[in-house]
Hints:
Elements: H1 5-11, H2 22-36, H3 48-55, H4 59-71, E1 75-78, E2 82-85, H5 91-102, H6 108-129, H7 132-150, H8 154-170, H9 175-181, H10 184-190, H11 206-218, H12 221-237, H13 249-253
Antiparallel strand pairs: 1-2
Amino acid sequence: MTVSAAVREAWSGASGTVGDLKSDRVRAVLEQQILSGELPPGTLLPTEPQLSAALGVSRTVLRDAVRALVARGLLTVRQGRGTMVAEPSDEALATAMIARLSRSGLTVGDVMQSRITLETLVVRLAAEAGTDADWEALERAEHTLIDAIAAGDEHGAHAAHAAFHAGILEATRQPALVLLLQPMNTIALLTGASSVRSGSTEDWNLDAHRAILDALRLGDADAAEAAMRAHFSDLEERSIYVGLLDRPFAQAYFGAP
């Protein structure tokens, strides 16, 4: 996908718009065009010499602006392919949330409590709005989790666990809520203490996941919430959690002893 003539025309005034630094002005113009859809995902931007000339700024200024937009998850720079408008992603928001939590002084327990608040609300909404297709997707994620644990596949187990909880959020049938809360799925993994021991399901509390799914299938919001609360209560009582909840989030995240 290439850049339209209207977008190119707007670039000519970029060096005279908002911001004190030229790089801020360029970033603001490109950001507005990306967020408004004038530069849709997949659009290949002109080469650096062409784009800097169109914007009326130096290559150094352009590079600063591009770096800022890459950090925000709006552009991607690929060797041999150039600079493209990135596909929408939760990664930038999740990374920003992790950074903010890490500098907040909050503990793992504080973050876990917010997760409980959100997930007990979400599971009620899912019970009321979800469909058989949603429950089938959750069951597939559950089976994938079981298989990954049996195989000692840590990456696969965490991915399946994330998919299970993400599937509950999807079942709310509220697209805006999904967009706003999906990054919490990343945080959920960081507040978990599950380990993978070949052939063992002990640390994953699979019975709790099954109880949640059974309640969702029945469309019973009260039972679904109770099952979700039981899931978290069981986690907090496990020996593997001893000392974890009181640790600063940053310390736990970066794996400090």
